[in-house]
Each structure stands twice: as structure tokens, then as C-alpha cells.
Amino acid sequence: MRVTEQAHEAVRAVVEPGETVVDATAGNGHDTLFLARLVGSEGCVLAFDVQEEALAATRVRLTGHKIGGDTVVLLQESHVELDKHVTAPVAAVMFNLGYLPGSDRQCRTTPGETLRALALAWDVLREGGILSVVCYRGHAGGAEEAGEVVRFAEACSSGGASLTISGRGESETGPFLVALRKRPPL
Predict the structure, then answer these.
(1) pLDDT range class, residue 107, cuts 50, 70, 90
(2) Contacts with 85 (C-beta within 8 Å, 6 or more apart), sequence order
(3) Calpha distance 91→129 (Å, rounded)
(4) Helices then strands (H, E): number in the chain?
(5) pTM here?
(6) What is the pLDDT of residues 109-141, one digit of tens each?
(7) Contact 93, 104 (CB under 8 A)
(8) In 26, 117, 157, 160, which residue has its Cα 20 to 30 A from 63's Cα atom?
């Protein structure tokens, strides 16, 4: 099973209809569509991307699947602006790192911004919520960014969060999933 499908399975196990969720890297809209279907018409998806091209592709995907505008809010902003738009705890935050497939590979996520966004996402995650990060190592800076994601997740897990890393050892350049679940206090 592909790591993106594993991410969807992990998120599906946590999110309930009507909840608020975040797609921190909208890209071509696959995760945004998945999240919109998961939360339903009573829920809300906040989808971030810095590229208008990505948001346009996401709009087309949502429209093609008859997902209404009330469910999804598309934001042409970096995921480091998450705290400006998320005011209540969310059930899930999904990241799909790297670059927009078929676009300029120089426009990609970076370790510094990703770490800031992960910290913001962790802060707004509800108890029992999930942070899902698909890391791609096959592009310039990808391995470094993936290493930073793992270090961040390991630090959170040492504080009691549940951490799962899938597919990391399958190849040195292939994608892998980091899933971090926030445990409720005892």
C-alpha cells in the first residue's frame, strides 16, 4: 500500500463527521478531497498552499466530485500561517511534503518552514487527534527535511504521543509516512 493511502487510513481512524481538519499542503487536492469526504457537509477543511496553481487544481478536483464551498476553505498561504486561521482544536492535520507534481521543483517545502508548521499543527491538534506527514526524500533538500520531521515526531513521542513511521526503510530516497497521535491526558 502506498504511503499516501496509509496516511488516509490513519486519519480515517481518528476523524469523525462534522469535525475541522487541515490539509497543510493542498497540492493537487487529493488529501483535501479525502478530508472533505471524511468530515462531510457539517465539517470544515482548511487547505493551505502557496501556489495558486495548486489551489486551482484543488478547486477543479473538489468541483468534479461535487464538494461544496462551505466545507472547504482554500488559503493561498504557507502552512506557517496556520495559527492565523485555526482558532479551535482540529482532529487532523495532513502534510504531503516536497513540491507540486508537474510544477517548478524549486518551489517546495523547506525544513525550517515545515518545522514551524509542524509545531503550530501540534498545538492546534485536539486530544486524540492525528498529525500525518508524508515525507519525500528524492528531491533536493528532501532527505534533510524528512530527518527534521522524524526528529520532531520523536521529541513529541518522548512526551507521550503515539508515533508510527511506515516505509522509511524501504529505500533511501522513497517516501515514508510519519503519523503522530496526540494522546489525551491520563
Answers:
(1) low
(2) 46, 73, 75, 77
(3) 5
(4) 6, 7
(5) 0.92
(6) 677 889 999 999 999 999 999 999 998 887 677
(7) no
(8) 117
Helices (H), 52-110: 52-64, 82-85
Alpha-carbon separation of residue 108 from 13, 97, 100, 149 (angstroms): 29, 8, 7, 15
Q: Which residues contact 115 (CB under 8 A, 6 or more apart)?
A: 148, 149, 152
Q: Which three cell numbers stand for residue 181?
A: 497521535
Place of cell 487510513: 9
**Distance of alpha carbon 159 from alpha carbon 14, whole angstroms:** 20
pLDDT digits (tens, 9 = 90+) for 37-81: 999 999 999 999 988 988 999 999 999 999 977 899 999 999 999
Identify which of 51, 45, 98 has the alpha carbon closest to the alpha carbon of residue 73: 45
Set of cell numbers at residue 16: 469523525
